[in-house]
Amino acid sequence: MILLIYYKKIKMKKVILIAMACFAIITCQSQTEKGKMFIGGLINFSDGNTSYYDTSGLTGTSKNYHFQITPNYGYFIKDNFAIGVNLNYLTQSTTNDNTNNSAANINYTQTKNIYGAGVFARYYKKLIGNFMFIANGSIAYNYEVDGETGISDPINENNKINSFNVTITPGLVYFISPKFGLETTFGNLNYSYSSTKNNDTSSQSKINTSNFGLNLDFSAFSFGVNYYF
Predict the structure, then answer these.
(1) Which of 1, 26, 73, 119 has its CA 20 to 30 Å from the CA of residue 11?
(2) What pLDDT sits at residue 221?
(3) What digits encode the pLDDT tens for the residues 196-213?
(4) Tens digit of pLDDT for each residue in 52-96?
């Protein structure tokens, strides 16, 4: 009799585990089926300080700030495959503050502001539990304004940059509920073409640049949340 009760308990636990696994699969797949939509976005933020000192007595700090937000909207045209649009805003600054300012070109602030928009296609693949792998391909246009202050001969003052970017980005989504998915992306494979115009009155120029590369630094990691409905 005791063995029978023990057997039933084990069997019940297996049934519960199987039911939970099935619920997790249904939860993920029901949010990525044809006709569903999502809204949300990604955020990338970093803020740090670096202190330095050399044998000549030069001391100071370098402050780096980076903030990026990318809101998006997606629509599933078929199960586990969505297309959508997004916006992009990035602001970045580096300030170098030298306490012994006898040396030229030491105290300065570099800034960067980017405004953009794009389209994307995204594929979802079920992993385990509420985790899904995503592969995101996007095409975007960005308008960038760069500037420098405090340098006697600034090289990036009043730069205006128009760029087109093609990016493939892998990531993960974890569904904390049937409606909300936490998302992270890590690294990217990218191609970009840009046209840079320097409007400095002392030296006006225009430069066209194309790049292809793999980005794995910290700035390529992003976190966000999407609402699925």
Answers:
(1) 26
(2) 77
(3) 887 665 566 788 999 999
(4) 666 666 677 778 888 999 999 999 999 999 999 999 999 999 887
Domain boundary assignment for the chain: 2-228
Distances (CA, A) of 228 to 40, 74, 91: 9, 9, 28
Cα gap 77→201, rounded to integer Å: 51
Tell me the helices (H) and strands (E) count for the chain, helix number first.
1, 10
CA distance linking residue 109 with residue 181, whole number of Å: 38
Q: How many CB atoms lie within 10 A of CB 229?
A: 9
What is the rounded end-to-end Cα distance, in angstroms, of the chain?
50
Compute CA distances 54 → 34, 58, 59, whole Å. 61, 6, 7
Q: How far is 169 from 137, CA to CA, in rounded Å?
A: 6
The C-alpha atoms of residue 125 and residue 24 are separated, in whole angstroms, by: 14
Are 87 and 117 a contacting pair, CB within 8 Å?
A: yes
Average pLDDT, the chain: 80
pTM of the model: 0.72
At 63, list the tokens.
């402050």
- CATH class (in words) of the domain with range 2-228: mainly beta
What region does 150 belong to: left with phi over 0, alpha with psi -120 to 50, or beta? left
The SS3 call for residue 153 is coil
